[in-house]
Amino acid sequence: MTDRFRALLISKDGEGQKVHDAELSTGDLMDGNVMIAVSYSTMNYKDALALTGRAPVVRRFPMIPGIDLAGTVATSEDSAFRPGDRVLINGFGLGETHYGGYAQRARVKSEWLLPIPGAFSFAEAMAIGTAGYTAMLAVLALEDTGVKPESGPVVVTGAAGGVGSVAVALLSKLGWRVIASTGRVAEAAYLKNLGAQEIISRSEHGGEPRMLAKERWAAAIDSVGSKTLANVIAATSYGGAVAACGLAGGMDLPTSVAPFILRGVSLLGIESVNMKMPRRRQAWDRLARDLDREKLAAMTRTIELHEVPRVAEDVLEGTVRGRLVVKVAQ
User: Fold this and answer.
1) So what's the architecture of 130-269 in CATH?
2) Which residues make beta-bridge pairs with 11?
3) Structure-derived torsion over alpha carbons of residues 237, 241, 246, 248, reported in degrees to the nearest 10
4) Is the Cβ–Cβ distance between 249 and 316 less than 8 Å?
């Protein structure tokens, strides 16, 4: 394995941050007990925020961005992992405080590593990435409350995005009647192909939230936040549950206690970065079982490492649907 490798690097000075191609050596990498030859990464909404600097995702500079990676163990000081093992990482500070996946090499801590389920290739594991893994965590959280497909329909907001696309495919496979909420009604055919049975416009959730609205769904997965989340909660039926996992529309939540104390609605916060390993394994085992790989392929586009900075702007503009896989290895 050569000592030199290619990476994207974010630097920052008095004029702001810049993203540029860099050639580094393994000696430049941060501490860790496992060296990974990275094959693929992915682009999530959080990656786009980091690359553009529109949110303070990166907490030390310089930084190799990329909150996900998949590749092969090159060297390991931990007997639990051997050279040649296929592994992935989601979160744990990659691309924020520790050099991330947009590089051909990564030195990481072994406790961050998860074996890639045998069903998935490197590219498929990254087609899922943090967005898909988060969607599965949201599904698991809903199931933990006892809501079931027979309880009523489930709404997915931001349905044409990364989290939303995987959530629609998963929930459909599990027998739910899926209502897909999107600001891109032109993607109706795409969403129906993933399993959505009804498409509604994001504008339905854009107004000032009411304390309570007509009951429309038993469950929800929301990646938007703000007024959208508030309106979704207000329309959730008695005993229902809402999994919140995103903030594309804002971090505020202009709601009231009414849905929680009058209808017994549960609001479930989904955190993926520091999730304990047993839950991660459960999520990835379920993804291997419950995610239709043909639908995964239908929602996925692959880009090259040099395209990443440009495409990040498209992600934040909401013009990219589904999942973006980043080919890192040459």
Assistant:
1) 3-Layer(aba) Sandwich (3.40)
2) 18
3) 0
4) no
* Dihedral Cα 129, 274, 242, 116, nearest 10 deg: 30
DSSP 116: P
Predicted TM-score (pTM) above 0.90: yes
Asked if 148 and 154 count as a contact pair (C-beta separation under 8 A), the reply is no
- How many other C-beta atoms lie within 10 A of the C-beta of residue 116? 21
Contacts of 9 (CB under 8 A, 6+ apart): 19, 20, 21, 22, 24, 62, 63, 64
In terms of Cβ atoms closer than 10 Å to its own Cβ (0-12, 13-18, 19+), residue 212 is: middle
Could you read off the pLDDT tens digit of each residue along the chain, which spans 330 residues? Answer: 578 999 999 998 888 899 999 999 999 999 999 999 999 999 999 999 999 999 889 999 999 999 999 999 999 999 999 999 999 999 999 999 999 999 999 999 999 999 999 889 999 999 999 999 999 999 999 999 999 999 999 999 999 999 999 999 999 999 999 999 998 888 999 999 999 999 999 888 878 998 999 999 999 999 999 999 999 999 999 999 999 999 988 999 999 999 999 999 999 999 999 999 999 999 999 999 999 999 999 999 999 999 999 999 999 998 999 999 999 997
Cβ neighbours of residue 259 closer than 8 Å, sequence gap 6 or more: 211, 212, 233, 234, 236, 265
Give span(s): CATH 3.40.50.720, the chain.
130-269
Helix 277-290, helix 162-173: angle, nearest 10: 60
Count of positions (residues) in the chain: 330
| Number of Cα atoms under 13 Å in the Cβ half of residue 303 | 16
In the CATH scheme, what architecture does the domain 4-116+299-327 have? Alpha-Beta Complex (3.90)
Closest by CA to 208, choosing from 257, 256, 157, is: 256
Q: Where are the alpha helices (DSSP H) in 55-182?
A: 122-145, 162-173
Give the rounded distance of the alpha carbon of 94 from its chain centre: 14
